[in-house]
Write the structure tokens for this entry.
Amino acid sequence: MIYTVTLNPSIDYIVQIDQLTIGDVNRMKGDLKLPGGKGINVSRILKRINTDSTALGFLGGFTGSFINNWLEREDIKTNFTSVEDDTRINIKLKASEETEINGQGPIVTANEMDTLKEALGHLATDDIVVLSGSKPASVPTGFYQELIEIIKAQGASFVIDTTGADLMDALEKGPLLVKPNNHELADLYQTTFNSIEDIYPFGQRLLDEGAQHALVSMAGDGALLFTQEGVYRSNVLKHQVKNSVGAGDSMIAGFVGSFTKTQDPVEAFKWGVACGSATTFSDDLATADFIQELLPEVKITKVK
């Protein structure tokens, strides 16, 4: 089983207007409410590539019910931990420029954190747990490390998609996959990249420090996969870019969903690129049909 953990889910409230005028009344020309959160996005894409998962995390209030009900309608299994406070709402304001106003997230109590830990207390050795995204401000530093200890104690594998200290601290625990983008990787090692080749030693460093596989996304330059067998690069698919939200989560879903079936990281990389690209070219997360349409366009080349 694949489990996804989203510590700080949201309703993404997408508001479309022609022009934003500060200090005046603005009229929407359209709006959309969607379940948000990186792990939730992974579960939604996994479902579209015929791979089951269970979505975990913290949900509360009427906003939490909205998210849980949405996922149940998509036939995604959930086992969220209920919290007293409301799940946050993030505003995505799309005008001539895009503006985001993100909520801080709920206050999560110590008992609620313990309940989530208990939900991860019955893993099998072939299970994979995907840990994604930010934490609510009330969740202490090091909480991801506590979850990783629980996962590893049961012999299960984990994927982590976060940045900074949480990512660095996770490397020594041997994650199945990490997925920084090129900017996050540069920040992690306090360096700059002037070419794609500059990335190679730092992607390799992720492996040297414990990661089993590393994906580095590079927006319009494609993506890199680092494995013990070599370094691989994807081509860049040529379609209209519509959306960046959820593209990285879709890439993780494609990789993990394929890897659980094939144990082939290069084939999993191909699926990851197809899923991530399909979301980039869509208004929301990619559809199953669009992922299948793009899959033959993905070309993977060994570069090192």
